[in-house]
Amino acid sequence: MSEQALPQPNPALDQRSESDVPLRHWIALLGGMLGAFMAILDIQITNSSLKDIQGALSATLDESSWISTSYLVAEMIAIPLSGWLSTALGPRRYLIGTTVIFTVSSLLCSIAWSMSSMIAFRAMQGFSGGALIPMAFSLVVQLLPVHKRAIGMAMFGVTATFAPSIGPTLGGWLTEHLSWHYIFYINLPPALLMLAMLRYGLDDQPMNISSLKNADWAGIATMAVGLGCLEVMLEEGNREEWFSSHFIIGLTVIAVLSLVAFVINELRHPRPLVNLRLLTNPHFAMSGLAYLILGMALLGSIFVLPMYLTQIHHYNALEIGKVLMWMGFPQLLLFPLIPKLTQVVKPKFLVAFGFIMFGISCYVNTHMNQDFGGQQMILSMLLRAIGSPFIIVPLSLVAMQTIQKHQTPDASTITNVLRNLGGAFSIALIATMLDNKAREHLAHIKASLPSVSNDAWHQLAQQAGHYLQQGTDPTTAMLKAKASLAQSMQTDAYIMAYNDIFMMMTGFLVFAAILVLSLPDAEPAKG
């Protein structure tokens, strides 16, 4: 099964000139990229609207968190299944089918009548969206000759980095000016356009019944249970206080046992769902680790930046969007240049440069204070916008350098799963680290108060004087001043915690740059 996973590259394409790529193949490729863009966009688009959805469906805050969790869990499960299902049903039939499901589930989300129905429809949307992401990548291999694939990968890179950058902004704008329903309605026009593009651009292929009959059902079951429980554990762990919760302990045990069983099954099965033996290739394994760190950086930064601006500076969704756009739109100018650069510079050097720029963008945010707001973040946004395109496209070339053509589908599945897992690990780590570090810093600030008692009393006196001028009695004025000082101390503690998080991300990104540079120059795989 693994060798028949995603649509196989066509050797005849490699001998064709650029002008021989039919227009309809470009149309199909654009349709696939549009699908991936929508799927990635919908991961983040609900984040700005959770409170509105929560109120409309009479749900608690904990229940509303499952709007995102259900999507991510279903998406994570769908990615490894997409290869097998596309082989069994045929790529054209599979892509059109998943697009229809994505469209219908988006419509159902907009008319959800309870939180349970919303979670179910979001899971349906995530499962179909999870298929659209790897299939977009596979169309690059299937439809384009080798010398044109960097262009296709640049197109894929735009979807992978631009969509999450504008997701929260778009969701916030639609919710504020229209209603939360429109974050789902917005999927309908591009989905219909995508259906037309795929129907026109892709050739129909017969169903592969033998692939269904000989499916790796044990691998499918253990993968779905293992990855599903792992994703839920990472998403809900911090809210449940991790291993003090029996729910999280149970999920962890099930995830570990299922994934161990999955690995054993895949190594023994004659037609595994995913060819995990590719990870015994040191070059590909190290590239996979770089993908894991890339996922941590991409989704981690998208997670932490809005959180900082909301918690510290009380930005709304539109104000956050005006900051995040500085790391989204500049990428559109750079991505078209990357394919040409890969022809004159070794891809690993481009990847290392991208990771270093991304790392510098995080380091810029390691010395924040209460005056460090959206305007001060623009520099880091621009640095990230410069770095990201240099990672996305060249890293795919580096990862596939020692992979044979028939192994490309499995390699694509593995890298997509690793990138998503990296994002899940990063969000869980950041959420936990933020609370723990803030408590540590607050304790340190309180412990240092005696040494700065004169300054503290001066601040209290000034603040109390301010309240006295407003007509407050002296006792109440002093109480308010103390409360204000305590709030300022807590804000400082959280800012220090955010500084620590950005320093951690800087370290991971520098490590990724060193990792990629250490990869030996390898001869491209043949066959």
TrEMBL record:
Database matches in InterPro entries: EmrB-like, MFS, MFS_dom, MFS_trans_sf, Sugar_transporter_CS
Sequence intervals crossing the membrane: 26-45, 94-113, 119-141, 153-174, 180-202, 214-234, 246-267, 288-308, 349-366, 378-399, 497-519
Matching Gene3D superfamilies: MFS general substrate transporter like domains, Multidrug resistance protein D
A Pfam family: MFS_1
Gene Ontology, cellular component aspect: plasma membrane
Superkingdom per UniProt: Bacteria
Subcellular localization(s) per the UniProt record: Cell membrane
Topology within the bilayer: Multi-pass membrane protein
Keywords, comma-separated and alphabetical: Cell membrane, Membrane, Transmembrane, Transmembrane helix, Transport
Domain Major facilitator superfamily (MFS) profile: 28-524
GO MF entries: transmembrane transporter activity
UniProt keyword Transport, yes or no: yes
Family: Belongs to the major facilitator superfamily. EmrB family.
Protein name: DHA2 family efflux MFS transporter permease subunit
Organism: Photobacterium halotolerans
